[in-house]
Amino acid sequence: MATKVGAKIVHPNSDLSIKEKKELVQNIKTKDEHQSDALATSVFAYDKIKNKLSRIDSFLEEHRKEKLRSKIIELVILEEISIRNAIDIIEKPEKEEVKIIKKVIEEKELTKNDFVDLYNKLKSSQREVLFLRKQNNNLKRVLKNKDNNHQNLLKKFQTINFDQEAERLISHKEKRILSFDRQLKTKDEELHSIKENARKMSLLLANINNYYILKKLKNLGSLEFTQKNSFLDIGKSDMLLVENPGVFSGKVVDALKEKITVILCRNQVSSKIKKELPFSFIHCKDLDVFEIEDFAFVEKEALDRKTKNINLLNTIINQYRSKN
Length: 324
What we know:
single chain, alpha/beta, six-stranded mixed β-sheet, 12 helices
């Protein structure tokens, strides 16, 4: 029913007790027990989202966008998109990344949650770029002021005899200028890195159907799997990028073997591990893998071609072994 009408399912961890139901309805008269249960369920669901609704109302009132309330609530509550990004989707539908996210939400193709997560990260990166640019400009202004002050001091001291105190002050100013210069270079490098990641993310979103989405794990151990799977939600037919598959837990392997068939690795996997684990391991050599946070992306065509070559080689080896 929820799927047909596009509703979000809200439910308690266990059935509500009679006492809890009575506390929820608070002496509101109903015709029968069935109506009372329905009312208690509705109040419970509202309590779960009322704080988020309050934040939406406050934000819209502050930015004078109350007319978008119903559409914003639908995107934020049902699709779990941030308030700012929901406004972007409504007010700036012509933007390329907005078109992609809107298509994913409306047509429910591929992994919607991954796309939404990527879109939120992209917007966050863009805001960080703006913040760093402002900070960068502020540092340049400070550095320019310091340099002007330094030049003025030099002109003043050229007309008088230098003493130890004057030399100490000049040295201190020079050190501060050098320190600001190093900070400025560091911020410039950070800004360049963020802009490059944002550019790559935009390209990926624009051509997402040409890429496989990989979920990243450091290893196949219990601790790593438990921590990451709580939000990666590894499911059937997913692909993994594992840094060190040589570290593994039997329980984790059992949990994954019915879901995962292909694991990409940065390093070569030993023959012993290949025989022991029920997965197809593919080395990332010659593959252009782009990583961000807990996800990675690889071109479908390149990976399919490499997988085909590996399968062909395995077939030849098996045929040779069977003959001998």
